[in-house]
Amino acid sequence: MRDFKQLKVWQKAHQLTLSVYKVTAAFPRAELYGLVSQMRRSSASIPTNIAEGCGRYSQAELARFFVIAAGSASELEYQLILSRDLSFPEVSEYENLANDVVEIKKMLTSFIQRLKTDG
Known about the structure:
By secondary structure, the chain is an all-alpha fold. It has helices at 8-24, 35-54, 59-85, 91-118.
């Protein structure tokens, strides 16, 4: 069992979730139960799955939850593209969030590869 709060990837994913909540607060009210809800769920799913994986007892289970977190990151990456194409966030907000998602995906991929070679 690991302390997820000590992992840089969890810290970065948590900060991303906070940023997504802040940025989506300015989206059109009509999107509250649509894109806003989806983006918030997928962003929160990333650190949530990292935390859950850290509570498991095997490397294989940890890797499985990190794979799920990476899937949620890809989901958010698309939702960010959609929101940008709909002109909801500021360009700089989109770029910051998109860059953070890509960095988190790289971190997760690296972590998963290490777990699979160690396991």
